[in-house]
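re: ur question from yesterday

yeah so i grabbed the chain u mentioned. its 312 aa long if i counted rite. heres the sequnce exactly as i have it in my notes:
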Amino acid sequence: MTEAGLAVATAGLTKRFGEQTAVDAVDMSVPEGAVYGFLGPNGSGKTTTIRMLLGLIRPTDGHVEVLGSPIPDRTSHILPRVGSLVEGPAFHPYLSGRANLRRLDAADRFADPGTSGARIDAALDRVGLLAAARKRYRAYSLGMRQRLAIAAALLAPRDLLILDEPTNGLDPQGTREVRSLVASLAADGATVLVSSHLLSEVEQICSHLGIMRQGQLVAQGPVDEVRAGSQRVVDVTTADVEQAAAVLRSLGLADVATTYSGVRAAASGVEPEAVVAALVRAGVGVRGFAVQVPSLEDLFVSLTGEGFDVSG
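ran it thru and got these structure tokens back, copy pasting raw so excuse formatting
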């Protein structure tokens, strides 16, 4: 059974395609009620992991449990409680938004035909498309298409939503709309796993992070804890640059370097109060002192060695 309080749990999850290992022994823990930001460069294994969570492909090795049930063994039992958007929406271009959802709902053997109309309208309203329900899909903007795909995932009550790049290709307005929608779904009690490249999206809506690199999960946990695990930096504003640098080195601080206003170094476990006290005892004229926690972008780069798309 899944550990209590987890919506998704994997142990040693691995997927190989021939000699290539796409996902390498991933131990993922997604708490119930969390908005879990699943991050990583293209090709890091995020989508392959998501496809295994949904039972779309079988793991080479390892174990997956979603909402307390093993996947893929009980996929048909658990997937009615899971909504997903993977690798972009696919709809009939000549049908309206409502007609597309009607076809999808009719194909769902777990859906109640008697409540179909009400549920479709509720889903369209939830994503802000009720006024455009009769418009043909081919006339929808990219943002509207993404929101219709999320509406499709909301045709029935869901305990877990898995969204793979839900804001991919959207303009800033479309990104804000989807971000707001994800936040509201989480506020209603759903667990949301969202794969994304947008730093602003992750920082504003995610409570937990999982960072992938070359098929491995290199960091995971609540956002604050993941960021706290990265190296803090102390900035000393002073005219006594050489003396300040000598003090920092004597305290064992690493990566001591001069800046335009003074000296900077990695905190290396030394408390800020001790650094200030040592500088004052040494007669360094301290004009300013600050402790900088690396940004999420800095953390991502340090863990993956690659840049992060901060647009949106």
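noticed a couple things. The longest helix spans residues 172-187. also The chain has eleven helices and 15 strands.
anyway ttyl
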